[in-house]
Amino acid sequence: MVKRFFTALLLFGAAVFLFAEGSLTMDFSIMNTAMRTRAVTLEIPVGETMPVATIGDSYWGLGTSGSAGMAFKSSGNRNVKAEVSFDFNFPEQEYGGASIPIITLDRAYVKARFPVLRLTAGKTRLGWGDGFVFNSGDVIFGSTSPYVDLTASEIRTETDWMTAINIPFGRFSFLEGLIMTPEADADAGKYFGEIQDLSAGGRIYTKVGGIKVEAGYMFRGNSDSPLHRPYLALQGNLVIDWYLSGSVALPASLNASQEEIEDGLKDSFNISGGLFHIQELNRVSSMTFRIESLVMPFMAWEESSPATTAEIPTYGLLLYPEILYLPSDTLSLSLRSVVSPIDISAQITAGGSWNIFQGFSILGYATINAGEKSDTFAIDRSNGVWRAGTDIVDGYAFSLGVSYIY
Fold this sequence. Notes:
- The N terminus is likely disordered.
- The protein has an 18-stranded antiparallel beta barrel.
- The protein contains two helices and 19 strands.
- Strand 16 and strand 17 form a beta hairpin.
- By secondary structure, it is mostly beta strands.
């Protein structure tokens, strides 16, 4: 099966050059990272379905990681655009005695423009709401988790299969609707998703007095816990750009009790907002400032000291400050952080990029988790409080690498 995949991939590349009118872009990055991390093993106890983490001693590790991307974008037809892109991520995974890189289909979509509507079909991303890290208006993918990779140029990149129709009714106004097919349960012998598990929604986008007003709704289908997800987003400019959005997720089951609805409201209601400004210093240098916040009114507003993973609370306030300094058109310096003010912890990343040659850059980053053992971010999880899949580093990480786009 693996050989067939690579054969198909090679044939795709050949077809791009022979028959298609468009552009092929390749990007490659590799990073050498030293970090203080911790040995963690996951085991599924007999009779259970969820893994249990066993945490070992901390140690300084050194590793190499990276990715190679290939994207083909069509051109030549002003009414139709398409893109197919793959990502090859490494280190490789062992499969059948061979080392195979992790390959993902990042995007595969076509966009067509008709006289009265716009059609998008395939695997892609729609940007509902506003926000770089925190975006309550993103009811399609969700953009509220504080555990993100601050070394990435784009924080939220998740894509999914969908079909969307956009109907403009003014220069800055449109209606948009989409449908997302449910995932199939192959383990149960089902190669199609059940129709009641589909997700669908829509939004209206317009301007009122110079302020962008966006309102929408998403139905998230799920046999066990379907959800209604409405949202409202505003965006404008008062010397600096500002944006604000809010959303909630309510049980969509007809049998949902009043208590379940109230609990759903308290658990999901969140508001995000941000300020953004670019200040030009001279003809070649500039500074960019951004501050975002995520408020969850019904979450914890007092610090606690839990003893286990399950007891780490979700606090009611998170912040994302960012400063980007461009002293020249080839050098970029950045300072980013996700801050949890209630338990006074943060993940802080400082880094830079030096574009030496066209398309070729040297990258460097330093990351620290500043906080106590039971905080949202911790410099040391030695007491066993650990969130599987969320702690990016256990203390410190230093990375140095290169990227090349051609």
